[in-house]
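U., I forgot to send this yesterday:
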Amino acid sequence: MLAAGGGVALAVGWTIRWRPGRLRRRGASPLALGEVLDLLRQAYGATAAWAVGAVEGALELVGGQDTDAETRRRGAALVQLASVDGRLHVVHDPEMLYIAVGDFPYAAGLALEGSAHPEALADAIAGALRRFVAGMRLAEEQSAIPRARIVAGRVSRLVAGALTLEGMARAAVELGQQLTHRGVALVMATGDHAQIVAVSGAADRRLAGVQLSIDSPVARAIATGIPVATRGAEDVFGPGVPERRRSERAGTAYPLLDGAIVVGAFVVLGPPFDADAPALDDLSPLLNDLGPRLAAARAVHDAERRAVVDPLTGLRNRREFERVLSDARSGKDGATLIYVDLDHFKKLNDTLGHPAGDAALKHVARLLEAAVRTGDLVARIGGEEFAVWLPRTPLREGIEVAERIRRTVADKPLTWSSSVYPLTTSCGIASYPELVGNVLNLQAAADAALYRAKELGRNRVEKAGRTN
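Result:
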């Protein structure tokens, strides 16, 4: 059972009572949101259904008393997520199939018993849910509900539904686009630089992730706390961004404040609005609320990152490496593990000093990251020891990665105090199930192979012996 925005849904058997969830269209009879959703649920034989709307709150329908609390919790959480990220979510578990569709700040979803459903059924349900969500938006926008209340509801939904910094940023730009009918970007200030962390669908996707010059108009808005507008002769994002048409370079950067601290900027593309433009009234509650929310989300994000990241190299730490391997032990997919040791590191530290040693570790960390694919894991697990986890990778490919790491480090020496210092690495490699019959033994096998590589002269790759 869910309650939000003044609405309460009460599920009794196969029926639903919804108060006050009727959205009235001009010149039409009331739209019974719960009744339409219940028809969808019954049409596809679903055990439960959920809907989220900006003003009218959240709605749950349960088709019988035997739907367990965990199913209801998971379904409601998935629909909340879809309402923020605007994506299609299809989740299979051993007993249920969950499907949710979102278009911020609206979403709807169904839960069906069993997991062996044909793909065509999932596609049909997704299409029906998309039409239902589109109808929710149209009914609300054509209703007599004051626009200020609709906007406030959408901001509230953004705050309630976004559980991560990335999710909040994505939802904020999509809401900004809905309110302004323009492309929108969100920029976060971090230390001495600013970076575009999210762009809406109408903006140039190439902008996402771009780090901005300190001379850019957006950076000036962040530095001064005063909105800065351009008309296209100067790109609102400054130099060094993807080339775009003149009309797409214009924009206004609104600083986002957490108290007296500027945490970023909300950039609306296009020429500046007139002072009395309705879009400015719509934007105000979003801009006022977004700064503190982003600051809080970033604090959580930074704390979570510190828990899993090595502060010197920026790689994952040993704790996170052990967690990933622990998760992998419950699966049956093959994998390869490489242990990498920086040769003669103590001698380098003693000769050049600890700052040079730190520089060498960071240098090798960057080379390791460049040698692997997206989805692989590189971690620093000891002083000069690294681990490379290659999921779903056979031994042959793992050996290629290890050799690439060894050659790259040897070919790219460390530059320190205007001098060049050669570096080498030793690698031990183990794979499951080709060399190790039990995934629990991967670490011990890779460690033994690394020891053998060092004993045989270093700057080499050795693979583990075969074990059961």
